Amino acid sequence: MNSGHRSDDSGQPDADPADQWVLDPETGEFRLRPDAARRASEGRAGAARAGAARAGAPQAGVPRARPAGRAGASAAAAGGRSARRRGRVVRGRRLLTWAAGALGLVLAAGCGGALYVYRHLNRNISSVDVQVGDESERPRAGNAALNLLVIGTDSRVGLGRDYGDEGSTGHADTTLLFHISRDRSNATVLSIPRDLMVTVPDCRSGEKRIPGSARAMFNTSLGQEGRDPGCTWKTVEKLTGVRIDHFMMVNFEAVKSLSTAVGGVEVCAATAIDDPYSHLRMTAGRHVVQGEEALAFVRTRHAVGLGGDLTRIPLQQQFISSMIRKMKSSDTLTSPAKLWNLADAATKALTVDSAIDDVNRLKDLALDVSRVNTRNITFTTVPVLDDPTDSNRLVLKPGDAQQLFAMIAADRSLTETAPPASPTPSVSASEPPPVDADAVRVTVRNGTGTPGQAGRAVSLLRAKGFTLAVTGSNAEARSTGSVSYPAGQEDRAQAVAAALGLPATALRAGGRSAGVTVVLGADFVGAGTPSASPTGPPKDLQRVRADDTNVCASKFK
User: Fold this and answer.
1) How many CB atoms lie within 10 A of CB 284?
2) 3-class DSSP state for residue 66?
3) Which of 40, 150, 356, 374 is most buried when burial is the number of CB atoms within 10 A of its CB?
4) Is 393 left (phi over 0), alpha (psi -120 to 50) or beta?
């Protein structure tokens, strides 16, 4: 019968993993504590001596035991109590040692962060082997900035009837593009409205090929027709021109479990809220929410502001900011119980891409991201307008959306207090790379949605010496353009981009044709007009800073 009391080879009970392994702040790796290693060695030696004694063999260097007197027994008892007290103190210190280095991310939809502490938490983590397509279709790799796609799904699988749409596999209900700067001094968190009309590209989910759509709601990039997170990944890259490194996905249960694990999250309502859809009833003022109430807060939209998704997004940004502050507070860091609960809840809540599906990789990622100070984390939302053909849908705000995407792609900070990040070198229209233009084969495809743009671009290229430039078939409408090139022709692609005023972030290695292929996007503002990365954000951009404690629901109109 298993008593639940396990022993190692020395006959001693298994030690708590928190007492054995700690995170080395110098290397970022877990290691066995020296005193734990010594105890293990002594345990093995003791086992050998015990075995020798049972066999009747003499033990070198070990004196025969003498009966202990009353004083000796008292001292032993006192020593045992003292050792137990020391053990409790040491264990608490050990927990704080690794906790300080393992503080992780705060995720979407009010879904929180994670402390990746024990190796055995690996079994909690789910992963998806995403397929994001050919390199020639993807944005160019950045300059060591880190881009995480955080997806909050509204899946109701296994949740019964409590949340409506019983059994729904879920869509991309809440999506955040979490951009951490190259120098890790600042971060921009971009909310993408679920009702935004976008181009969803063709994608693959396992062995299944799923056709795309030239015009679809953004949230259908996940779940619809079996699309997996890789489809949302491709959609966001196509929409923003920002290359994504990893994704994380969480669901309704994550909001409840993570908010409870940290002991509640403080939120603020400027006016009373009574939403029969999300079941949130809240008086004006500050409240600490967790569990079902936390989920209701991040889901509510009908009784706040204008009652739409654009109203709900700032509530979620407020919640996540507060969660970040709570996780970094001493109240959480000094509570071993909270740390463990958070670690267990977070790893159970996450679904990630297969490249980061173990605790060590997630720990490295968490350490990297946790270096950003909360005052330098800025939340914002994609600039949008009402869809002129459907008042219940949204479209990109021309100019402003592309300006914001370009800032993120070029690693430009939205946080005024953060040190300015070094800009990504861009191609200047006035200083193209030296190439023999009349030997460069160029095909221009129109993905702007405006007829005639490819022809205008070809005319400009020929005027600048690219005599082999021709128009190709129209492409699906897209927000940002691309310049693809085969191996060995990067200098030619740079020259073409410069001639058209396209930024360096438009370059794509691995083109399939023999020459350079240009696909114009909505960011192509006119032949010969530079669209280099802006130095400042669009005017009147919605922003929430993670250290701002004065943000309240119902202020957003």
Assistant:
1) 14
2) coil
3) 150
4) beta
Structure tokens at 308: 């739409």
* 51 membership: H or E segment, kind and range: helix 34-54
Beta carbons of 487 and 528 less than 8 angstroms apart = no
**Residue 521 CB neighbour total at 10 angstroms:** 25
Contact 211, 200 (CB under 8 A): no
Give Cα 10 distance to the centre of its chain.
44
Amino acid symbol at 10: S
The CA-atom distances, in angstroms, between 165 and each of 160, 274, 441 are: 9, 21, 53
Per residue in 257-307, pLDDT tens?
A: 888 888 899 999 888 888 888 888 999 999 999 998 998 898 887 767 665
Q: What is the identity of the amino acid at 249?
A: M
Whether the Cβ atoms of residue 114 and residue 262 lie closer than 8 Å to each other: no
Which helix (H) or strand (E) segment is 84 a member of? Answer: helix 70-102
Mean pLDDT of the chain: 73
Average the pLDDT over 492-505 and give the result: 83
Torsion of CA 419, 424, 430, 432, to 10 degrees: 160
